[in-house]
Amino acid sequence: MRKLLATIPVLILLVGVAAGQGKGVRFAAVNVYLDSGEESLAAYQLELAAEVGDVKIVGIEGGEHAAFKEPPYYDPSAISRDKVILAAFTTGEQLPKGKTRIARIHVQISGDAPPQYAVKLNVAASTEGRKISAKVSVTPQGETQ
Amino acid sequence: MRDAQNHEAEDSQLLAPKGLTDDLARLLRPGFTVPAEVDRVVLALGRRRIRASERTRRVVRWLAGAAVAAVLLVALWVGTSRARLPQDIDGSGRVDILDAFTLARVLDERRAVERKWDVTGDGKVDRADVDAVAMSAVRLDKGRVQ
Description:
The complex is a heterodimer of chains A (145) and B (146).
Chain A: H1 2-20, E1 26-35, E2 43-52, E3 54-61, E4 83-89, E5 99-110, E6 116-125, E7 135-140
Antiparallel strand pairs in A: 1-5, 1-7, 2-4, 2-6, 3-5
Chain B: H1 2-12, H2 18-28, H3 36-83, H4 97-108, H5 127-137
Helix pairs in contact in B: 4-5
């Protein structure tokens, strides 16, 4: 009986260590791409939300093309939440065509569930403000602890 | 077929004897007479009930009409109030980045601006209004992201 009682703290310790070895808080980036095909992309607005996983947005940066280098418009309250509306436009003449990264979202992930993101394009437009069809996609980047 | 017609003809000529009809009439006659006053009251009650049900029907019809009118008014109000948003620069009925883009192009091309585009209310239409419109477009509390 005494031996049995002595093993209880050891068991509690082992369970605690095992729990600690689960995925803790880590950080990752999510690249957001728009493919406007042959059309020049001058403006876009999209919605992104983490549908699975414990995700918090911690930062938002612009895209790869000079026209969208600046961070897009977003609601500051999206920081520390799991959803955001991104929008940007440029009145410049040098515009991207085809697939281009328009933003990068930095996220904090907690828990074991791998995050899954849903993204929806509200609108994309050409330089004259004409609506164009485009495909939006997201690609998560590697996680760091 | 002919037989059936013959029977019909015979039936129509069948008459009960007068004595029998008199006896039956006497037997089935009520043992009292309804006073004219009671008759009038019963008739008045009947008419009142009919009028009441007609009134109910009219009220129901009126309420249905009022409900339809209210729905139409609300739809109209929602439609016009959305179009009335000062941030809705392009008049599409919704505020999105295209409104900010449209305003930015107007300013870049030095075209005439409208006073209602002074979203910030500082008395001028400039880049601050473009930013304000864009920020309206990305606001999360609009319930756009589920």
